[in-house]
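--- STAGE predict ---
source: upstream dedup step, 1 unique chain passed
mode: sequence only
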Amino acid sequence: MAIIPLRSLLTPSIVIPIANYALLAFLDISLRALLPLFFSTPTYLGGLGFTPSSIGSWLAMFGVADGLFQAFFFAKIVGRLGPKRVFCFSVSCFAPAMITFPIMSWLVHTKGAVDHAITVTLIGQIVLILLWDMAFACAFMFITASAPTKNVLGAINGLGQTTVSMARAVGPALATSLFAFSKEHNLLNGNAVYLIFIILAGALRWLGSHLPDEIQDRDE
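--- STAGE serialize ---
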């Protein structure tokens, strides 16, 4: 079997799916870092002031709901709409999910405590994140389909995982630092961090529009 140079794999049809996957992973790991941080931040700083047990309960509930949703509904949704439409729809859910953070901050500041309105908003955020998570399976589909032949599939997946690992290494540190900086300097009332990630989500939505409309069968 001939060894194919890695440089020959850096074509638009391969790089675009990997770039989508990398930015998706970066935004996702940043969101995962912000969730417990926002939950634990005191209410007077714009967080929810949850106890560790409450944070664990909310995250556990999300994990169970996410697993059930992906298992029972993802395949049906992709079968009906196609992977590109699902991907673009899913990544579009990131901005609304981010917007719920300042909404909850405003509610807790206005009401002085976590009440039913905040609980409903938090459940809405979880639903948006469930929809957002569908983008990962779609990204895997596009990366796999981008391989022109089977013998380069491992190299392409390795390139994708290496790129994503770097994104996931940077994401949590950057997200938490931006969160602290926004709160410390009261940038946009402490909400500048969310605006930055919403802009990046817009870039991902634009990048997703460059994915192929249909997944083509790979030559064997």
